[in-house]
Design goal:
Elements lengths: L1 H48 L20 E6 L5 E4 L7 H6 L5 E4 L3 E10 L2 E11 H52 L13 H50 L6 H26 L11 E3 H18 L4 E2 L9 E4 H18 L4 E7 L3 E7 L21 H4 L5 H11 L3 E7 L2 E8 L1 E2 L2
Parallel strand pairs: 7-9
Antiparallel strand pairs: 1-2, 1-5, 3-4, 4-5, 6-8, 8-13, 9-10, 10-12, 11-12
């Protein structure tokens, strides 16, 4: 963050310096050259004032002493050098000045200014002043060096200011990042501290408010799970004890009913345990869930619902010979998942239902399919609260498939829709073989 802020600021300063320094450097060069031409022109005019018109008849011409690095010469109308220094024969600038014009030019090595000398509205000569370009070039380089020094100083100050501002801007963001990292590691008490930047303070306040709401929501969920655990486990345990005591009575007609009610109570108790384990409140972790042989789990789940399918005139097939021998899986979760899939096939499917098992080596694939056609959006099939039919007529709440998928993930497996016509669900689960 700090480097990014500093990089952006330094880049902006560099762009501003380039945009300002480039025209300024050109202006320095142009100004120094124009200043030198003006100096030569003043020197030439000053010399022209002292030229006597009688120099053509042999009187000596008196020229003002030139400045340092300057050459001043007087040329007659025939372009011959009569006094001072300069080329022996007049050049183009001299010829232009003989026509009454001030001529200026820059040759490869000199700056030249030629001024006409007039007498009685007649040009009687030309004063030519020149200086070396190298002298002006040195002054230009010195000006550019001063400009570069100023730019370097400005850049240094900008870097120092940028680094300080980057620290000021990045420190609260880094602090906010540390608090977010602490939250991801499970510390819901972490709160971002206020800073001197209003915008970042607003983000920190929003983060703290969100974290507070999240902590309260999790607390309510934990309290609900704990309360549900207590309120469900206690009456279920009492009901089981009552039913078990009822089995001790010698009543041939009552005994089958009590046995069926006791089995249903035990199944309900296991379901509560699985839901609590999935919620992470007092339940066993996946690695501590007792394993059971898959063939027993499958046979119990099918036999328990065989009568429901028979009453509806539908067949329920489960070829146990396809199950690999000695394969064990987590008993409770797999029982719940198979129960949800079979109940879903009974409530929303049609035709015969077939349960098949495929050996994938270190995993098993359990397919539960019927002869019906999926009439709901597959993307919403496992969404909690979504049901494939009318909740009133089918008794569906849209929770079963979502719960089954969560249970499969908690086992390190996967539950998905393998086909929509006919409808087929596939459960992939890791297995452990009996040694």
């Amino acid at each position: 963050m700090r480097q990014r802020v500093a990089r952006v600021a330094v880049t902006a300063v560099l762009v501003a310096l380039v945009l300002l320094a480039t025209p300024l450097a050109l202006a320095i060069r142009s100004s120094l050259y124009a200043d030198q031409r003006d100096t030569l022109e003043r020197a030439a005019l000053a010399a022209a004032v002292h030229v006597n018109a009688d120099y053509r008849t042999g009187d000596p011409a008196e020229l003002r002493a030139p400045g340092a690095g300057e050459r001043v010469g007087l040329y007659d109308p025939g372009q011959a050098l009569r006094a001072g220094t300069g080329p022996r024969a007049g050049d183009t600038m001299v010829r232009q000045a003989l026509h009454g014009l001030i001529a200026r030019t820059t040759t490869g090595s000199e700056l030249v200014v030629a001024v006409p000398v007039s007498h009685n509205e007649e040009v009687i000569g030309v004063v030519r002043a020149s200086s070396a370009v190298s002298a002006v070039r040195e002054r230009v380089f010195l000006g550019w060096a001063a400009l570069c020094g100023a730019a370097l100083l400005a850049l240094t100050v900008a870097v120092l200011v940028t680094r300080r501002q980057a620290r000021v801007l990045a420190a609260p963001l880094e602090d906010l990042s540390r608090h977010c990292r602490a939250v991801t590691e499970g510390d819901l008490t972490a709160r971002a501290a206020p800073s001197a930047i209003a915008e970042i303070d607003q983000v920190a306040r929003t983060h703290n408010d969100m974290l507070h709401s999240l902590a309260e929501l999790l607390r309510h969920e934990r309290d609900f799970t704990t309360n549900a655990s207590h309120q469900l486990r206690t009456p279920l345990t009492g009901l089981q004890l009552t039913l078990e005591s009822g089995l001790e009575r010698d009543d041939a007609q009552l005994r089958p009913v009590v046995e069926e009610a006791l089995a249903a109570t035990r199944r309900l108790h296991r379901t509560v345990e699985e839901v609590l384990r999935l919620a992470g409140s007092g339940g066993l972790p996946y690695h501590a869930v007792p394993d059971r042989p898959l063939d027993q789990i499958l046979e119990e789940a099918v036999q328990r619902r065989h009568g429901l399918f028979a009453q509806a005139g539908r067949r329920l097939e489960y070829p146990l010979q396809d199950i690999p021998a000695g394969v064990r899986v987590p008993g409770g979760p797999v029982t719940e998942i198979l129960g949800v899939l079979l109940d879903n096939a009974h409530g929303h499917g049609s035709g015969s239902v077939r349960v098949t098992v495929r050996d994938l080596g270190d995993a098993l694939a359990i397919d539960v399919g019927d002869e019906g056609t999926l009439r709901t959006d597959p993307a919403r099939l496992f969404s909690r609260g979504h049901t494939g039919g009318d909740p009133v007529s089918t008794g569906g709440t849209g929770i079963g498939l979502a719960l089954a998928q969560d249970l499969a993930v908690s086992l390190g497996g996967r539950l998905f829709l393998a086909g929509g016509d006919p409808t087929t669900f596939t459960l992939l689960i890791p297995v452990r073989s009996v040694e």
